[in-house]
Amino acid sequence: MMMLDVQGINVYYGAIHALKGISFHLNEGEIVALIGANGAGKSTSLSAISRVISTRSGAIFYKGESIINTPPQDIVTRRIIQVPEGRRIFPRMSVVENLEMGAYIHNDRGKIEKNMEAMFARFPRLRERRKQLGGTLSGGEQQMLAIARGLMAEPELLLLDEPSMGLAPIIVEQIFDIIQDINQHGTSILLVEQNAQMALSIANRGYVLETGRVVLEGSADDLLDNPHVQEAYLGGGG
Amino acid sequence: SGAQTPAPANTDAPVATDATTDKATDVPAAAGAPAVCATDEFGCAVIPPGSTIKLGMGAPMTGDYASFGIDISQGATIAIKDGGELDGFKFELVAQDTQGAPEGGAAVANKLVTDPTVVAIPGHIFSGSTEAAIPIYEKAGLPMLSPSATNPPLTTLGSKVFNRIAFTDAVQGKSAAEYLYNKLGFRKIAVMHDGGAYGQGLADVVKQEFTALGGEVVAYEGIEPGKQDYTTVLSVISSKNPEAVYFGGYVAEGYILANQMKQTGLENAVFFGCDGTFGAEFIEKSGANGEGAYAASLIPPDSDAKAKFDATYLADYGVPAGSLSPYTWSGYDAAAALIAMVKSVAVLGGDGNLYVPRGELVKAVRNMSGFSSITGDITCNDVGECNTAGPTFYIVQNGEWVQAPK
Amino acid sequence: MAEEHHKRPVKMPQLNIKIIRLIAAFVVLVLLILRIHNVALESQLGASTWLRLSVSGLIIGGMYALIAIGYTLVYGILFMINFAHGEVMMIGSFGGYFVFEAFNAIPVTLHDGTQISFLNAQPVIAILLAFLIGMGIAALTGYFLEKIAYRPLRGAPRLVPLISAIGASIFLQNAGQLLFGPQRRQYINPVIIDRGLGWQIPIAGTKVLLTYSGIFSLVLSATLMVALYLLVQRTKLGRAMRAVAQDKRTAALMGINVDKIISQTFVISGALAGSAGVMWGIHNGLTNYFVGFLPGIKAFTAAVLGGIGNIPGAMIGGLFLGIVESIGPAALGIDFQLQDVIAFSILILVLILRPSGILGEALTEEKV
Amino acid sequence: MTTLLETRRVTKVFGGLTAVNKVDLVVSQGMIASIIGPNGAGKTTLFNCISGFYNPEEGQVIFDGKVINGKLTDRIAAMGISRTYQNIRLFKNMSAVENIMVGFEPRMHQGWLPVMLRTPADRQEEKYVISEAIKLLKYVGLEGLGDNLATNLPYGAQRRLEIARALGNNPKLLLLDEPTAGMNPQETDTMKAFIRSVRDDLGVTIILIEHDMRVVMDISDQISVLDYGQKIAEGSPNEIQADPRVIEAYLGPGASALSDKYRRERQR
Amino acid sequence: MNNLHIQKSAKNGLVFAVIIIFLALIGFTVTAASMIQKVFGVEVSVGTMPKYSALIAFLAFIGLWNGWRAAKQTEEHPLQAGHAILAGLASGFVTGLFALGYSLIVGTLQSNGVNVRVYLSSLSPESIIYFLFGQSPLSGGFIQLSLSTVSAAFGALLVIFWDRSQHQFLIWKQKLSAWGNASWPAKLRRNVFVGYIAMGVVLLLLVILPRTWGSYWNYVMGTVGIYVLLGIGLNIIVGYSGQLVLGYVAFFAIGAYSFALVTAPEPHNLNWNFWIAILVAVVASAISGVLIGLPILRLRGDYLAIVTLGFGEIIRILIKSDLLKEITLGPRGIRNIAGPTLFGKSFSSDSDFMYLIILAVLLSIFLARRWQESRIGRAWLAISQDETVAQATGVDTYKYKLLALAIGAAFAGLGGAIFASRNQFTGPEDHVLMVSINVLCLVIVGGMGSIPGVILGAFALKGLPEILRELESYRLLVFGALLVLMMIVRPEGLWPATRPKYEENSPPPVTVEGGSR
Ligand SMILES: Nc1ncnc2c1ncn2[C@@H]1O[C@H](COP(=O)(O)OP(=O)(O)OP(=O)(O)O)[C@@H](O)[C@H]1O
Ligand SMILES: Nc1ncnc2c1ncn2[C@@H]1O[C@H](COP(=O)(O)OP(=O)(O)OP(=O)(O)O)[C@@H](O)[C@H]1O
Ligand SMILES: [Mg+2]
Ligand SMILES: [Mg+2]
Predict the structure, then answer these.
(1) Three-state DSSP class for D7?
(2) Which sign does the torsion angle of CA E347, E349, E351, E356 carry?
(3) Domains of chain A by range and CATH?
(4) Higher pLDDT, C167 or A139
(5) Structural domains in chain D?
(6) Which residues in chain D are contacts of A38 at CB distance < 8 A?
(7) Ligand 2 centroid to D19 CA: how many Å?
(8) Which end of chain B, N or C, is surrounded by fewer C-beta atoms within 10 Å?
């Protein structure tokens, strides 16, 4: 079933035409990767889905309903959760408080506690640092916190923006393990990555964006084997 | 009143235009202009039929001193209403905002002199604003009669146009010091002021005169007006045990001090104010704490003129006399006196225009004598002090201002 | 913008500068102590005077603190100085004034046949209502202020909302003058908090009057401050406010309605200002359109002194400023006219030593 | 080869955390030296100690034979150390050329008076700086974009502009903090070549922080590995790749190996 | 047209109800009506109210606006006439209902002999009666109701016409701009001589005007000029180097007082020459800028703002304090301050001062531009955008910040000296916080960092209040509202700054709208 359907959206930053009629979709239970060069419009696409930036035209459907006029806070209550680029942890809140912010839309204390336990179980490192302020965590810890914070909202669709950026290779490995695991527990995932190799290797399908347009789409394996993708995004097949 | 000079019906003499003055006083060589306009130092103001004779005032209408400006200008407006008409011409008050600052005073003066139908200035309010305005009116030949600019040197500048009915700080301060020393027999007083030109001026004189008389000023403190808690400074003064606290400033701070003296160990010291702190508002807002306080005034508290004015003010503006700022009455008087002077010199021209010889008016105001007003008779001396009589002192007894023993 | 701010940039203090500063601070401190010592010895200010000074400083400081919290709250979220905050306080103070005025006009006959006003028959209700109404209309003013003057400027360069705030401040002040007239209006307090009444505390032979209204103000401001602190630290709304303060966009991604939270912040900050306004009226016995200006500036100073954006900082800053203002001139033997000179000099001194205020962000070096 | 930069037991503490712990580092003239290590290992902090943002609690930073710790950042820049930042820090509302011209600041000498009088010396200096800045702009491949505000440039261009600005003061040592972060492999290769050319063409010594092993292993003459603030290994790319401690703490099984793992898993 | 639309219209109506009632409460309705009457050439006679037709015109204007806004809110494309009119009617009706309610309350109170004025001081009996068109509260209220409803409907109609004609209008606009870009206007614009001629015309005007427009305008424009001077100075500190200074008046005061003290006969009787005194004032201010800058320039942003605000207050309080009374004459101020002389001849007429001010402004513009367009300006700008990085890039931030403060202070000193000399008097009341705030406002209203902006801003901030004098006691109220409006409509300022171009033959740069960061 088609869960998310983005149809021809246009986004402008002032005079900059960032998205030029992009269309893509995501089926329930899938991992879909968006790859592309810097400034191709990947993050912008995610933000457009989250409605934190406005689209000038085009349509976005979630489970068959248009969400183009839904304000961001209501997108979240519909369980579309974005883990933004650059982590964006609340720097002057502790790890626990950050996680609680993730569960802002929920009111059931018991369930929040339970979810938090689950996060700590998944990221033991965070349990160690539970009292520490978000701003003083290292990059990797912040990234874990960002993902955990997103999961606290119990997403049905998770929008992940470059979860591996600036992370040590060994952490990248862990993060990708976790993404797969989340997906196997029933969350659909829209994944934006520079590390196309890794992204496509865990994704079902993928889209290639270039300067605000979708230039290629297909199953992950097809894309991995595509010569254009190999040359431009996989570092010459390395 | 009426025209002093008979209006010659048809004088052919062209009217001189003074090159040094502004357009405001340029008089067109009209057939109806009376002869006096040709000889007048500043020429004539020409009021065409249908226009009003304007009095211009510069006053703080906004900002923290707005209540002074608004009250005084409204007082003057009542005088305008009472002033009636002159040969079918009505009077009008043009009150412009100076925000109480010299800069604003100069701007307003410059604005007012461009209006040829403005003939006299019952203002300005506040000495700084007045001082900046004097040279401008001097050039244009507009007589001033300030209700409230009390800074002593203003009349020593050699200005022809500046006069005032407010009495100066020097006169008041000296009599206050003498009253405190001789009449009340105090030897140790504290002197306070609000840091303004008026309040501090007074306080300085009192301090100097009181010391000269042989008394001791145990504390001399300025306060920042607009605050509403002065217990700290009073506490410190109280530790010096003065017999009286003299305060130069306005009623708004005056009654706060009188109130807070009772909380700070100054229960037994006498609060001695000035004409700025005189008024029903003081009693109303200090209540029992104000009992036994002194103030100075020009205004006979029970005169009919004042009662009439107070009633009119309440009816017109909804503000009871007790809440009015000091000088409101002087505002009335200044306007009333100027209207009388205008009436005494204006000439109705043959062409139906009203001619007000400016130089004549300036002289008339300076020579004013025995004009009776709410605040007493107005008689100007040769430098423009129109109220050279000393103040009367009042004391609060049983919730009323009564005249203190002379 | 948010990120640029929460890492409050503080330049790397170099060792030599540090030492020079320390020495300078030490010298100033020694001079101050010597001066205070001398003055205290010379003047005959008794213990009672010092007590009076401290109490009055605390009361004023409490009110500064209440207003300062409003500044800090808004600053923390929008990084803008809400210059019109003092005017919001003025409007609140008129709210209380009219309640007292109305209640004073309603006569009540007691059992024994004496006629008193409703104000004195039911002072508690009157006071409660005065605060409710004062806080209510101030909150409303805050709400519309944000909606009209600040919301359209979200995302504009930092100084633009400041100018808008100045415009709003001028507007509100003049609206106050036009509506209620330029004259001061006397606050008719219920007798139980009359400004002349209070506890007489005997000290060193004389008595010090602790007025009920003063103590009432002090207790009320302390209560409000604690309540606010708990609100911000412990409740979901408080957490949401902090989140919005730190990163608006991410806050939206958590499901927070950012506009609503900002509105609510202005409502709370307005209500605090309103309560300070009523208190100011009760304590000082009067109000007029200009009553917000000076406390506004002072409270802003207090907020900065404590470390702007920091709620406990605003409290401490307010109390500190109040006490410095009232004790300073006496302790240094300086004319009271120079009260504000002392207050501002202390401010400068404190900021030179602690460039981000008393409780400002612990001085970490900026991460680049 | 002569030593250009040396850190001796440099230590930086934040509260209870020792971010950089007694780090000794020697970088010779003309080298490309890399610093790698897990997130939060203290790499950026070490950069901050070298460029003068932080004054280390202990130890010395010696540049060109002079101790420079404790000096203000502008003095250190004037001595010939330039840097870029992990999160791009350009002067956003200045044009690209102007950004570079600010980089020339340590090399300019006209004070407020000559500027006011616009003396010939001042004019000449200004002319020189403009032409040099445009040359640099061309060098980093931004020709034609010079009058754009920095904030309007694409990400990759901003990174290169930052380097151009850093080159403005004719540095001897250039510190690059994750210059390829957020770039795709193709862009990364371009940047790699560019970094190498800066060293080769301009003779600038470079210290590089990177997480992308394809960059680090290809162009480094020397790699130092930090972990928990301490230097745990140092050597040539081959030595580091083989070091078990580095593999355990940092490298893991390696990117390509990983994606193969996932691929296999999915195909099962 | 659904419930939501009705709700929106009602909300709009509520907003206008608040506006109307507020205007009535502060008595602005009367002033506005008299102004309308004056525009039509009928003076309002003293002590009477303007004609009712003027009130109707004013209320109708507000009603039109009300309907306009309501109709626009339907956000339909294309606009449906029925919906728009309905929205206008609904909104107008809601407003009218509230006006009716207000009329009933106030009118009844009034006719029962309650003096409303005791509580709401602008609400005179005459103005209440006037608002009710001289009728009973009920019928007066109904007139209000119908007036509001009908005019709002017309407002909606206007929107429809506008909507219909907008397309045509756009075409015309495009044609016009196409023509402007293609034919002779474009050539003219590109021709350098046109620039010179324009500059010449401006200069000529500057020479001629002071002689012709009388002392009042000389005074007002002189004030504007002095504020341009101050604005250029503060612009260097705030606009270029990015340091928020709220106590700029301190330097103004130091300039004015040092000038006054060395020229005036009292209190020191120094009677120095005007030109030397100006120099003294400028140098004294610049030095004070450096002295205050030395300890506090480490502070950033709002901390610096509040410290400088404090400094401004300290200077003002000290000037009027007893402590310095011997030196500054305390609150009385200093009088008889010297005017300019040249070769023993005095040049103190208002037009002479105007020329002096124009010269000073031209000089300061020249200097400010020199600095701005040099390495110093670049360094300032870099500091203002990222001080930490600027320093690490090699900019001696401390030195440049001090320089900015010293230059800014020097300009303020020059302004203060001219100010004192022109008024021949200066007192503490001239140096209040509002001066700093005004100068800051004009810098930002004009467009931070831009010199033409400063000039426009000075006209807006100091010229506008003079123009608004017609509004009497509503002057500052309207001014405050306009200030907010200006910021909302043009947050980047009236004439925003642009960056110079260095790269020749480069393609036109991409620009981003708005000044947002
Ligand atoms: N806030 C903004 N203001 C102006 N332009 C922007 C803004 N954010 C993004 N852009 C522009 O929009 C385009 C798309 O940006 P976006 O961030 O979506 O790219 P991306 O594919 O996520 O790139 P990256 O790999 O760098 O994250 C780019 O040209 C970028 O410069
Ligand atoms: N200004 C600071 N205040 C407090 N702690 C800090 C500060 N700067 C850095 N740290 C801490 O010091 C440690 C080292 O940080 P640093 O930025 O040097 O790491 P890094 O090696 O650059 O990591 P990454 O690869 O993620 O950029 C981290 O734990 C970080 O949280
Ligand atoms: Mg992105
Ligand atoms: Mg780092």
Answers:
(1) strand
(2) positive
(3) 2-233 (3.40.50.300)
(4) C167
(5) 3-80+171-267 (3.40.50.300), 93-168 (no CATH)
(6) 154-156, 182-184, 187
(7) 7
(8) C
